[in-house]
Amino acid sequence: MIGEDIAGVQHETEQLREQLLRAQRLSSVGTLASSVAHEFNNILTTIINYAKLGLRPNCDEAGRLQSLEKILKSSQRAAIIISSMLGFARNNGTLREVTDLVELVDEVLVLTEKDLSKHQVHVEKKYLAHPKAPVVRGQIEQILLNLIINARQAMPRGGRLQIEVRENKTANMAEIKICDNGIGIAPDKLRLIFEAFFTTKEPDDHGHGGSGLGLSVCRQIIEQHQGRIRVESLVGKGSKFTVKLPLAAQEERAAQPA
Questions:
Q1: Stretch among 32-46, 99-113, 182-196, 217-231 having the lowest mean pLDDT
Q2: Domain 95-254: which CATH number of 2.40.30.170, 3.40.50.1970, 3.40.50.300, 3.30.565.10
């Protein structure tokens, strides 16, 4: 009887965690929607303007070719954004698959690029390897999105966001480091940031602050993947979050489609 009660509580807890994760995904999409819509408006403006140029009676062959190249480049950019948005929206399952973590980081950066640019955050990428790990793609995307948005919010006047991906073969771990040079976190708060309902975010102009659930859920998801998350921070200097995930076994890599 007691065993059944415990199993029931565990099942209910897991359901609540999944519901919270879905709610966070919707919140993240809402945060990015304005920037993505603005980016699409810019792309459409470029396409329309170059189409008009190419259709002008006095436009020579070289001018038409240049217009078509600009239209093609803008269309390809739009396709990448759509693909990333659809991938993020659809990746809500619980199946683990061997995934190139660099590709996952790049997909999240496509979604956040306009938002980061708008807030004058410069991104520096350092990919020292292309580690593959068995992960639930949507869950790890959500973690990366949370960490990147948190980093941007920690740099209200702009700054530098550094993202590094590497393999630690000695520990058999993939490592993703996300560093900002923002306001940092005070030591007395740093030890609490992974606790549920604790937040360092003040309410914004619309009265929206942090829920205190983002980093708590991040840690739970990473631990479910047998990984770890660590943070280092200095007030006025910035913060560094390191996500560690077990590398895929050799047989898992071999089983991947070519």
A1: 32-46
A2: 3.30.565.10
What is the predicted pLDDT for the residue at 19?
67
Between CA 155 and CA 126 the distance in angstroms is 20
Task: Give yes or no for residue 105 having a pLDDT over 90.
Answer: yes
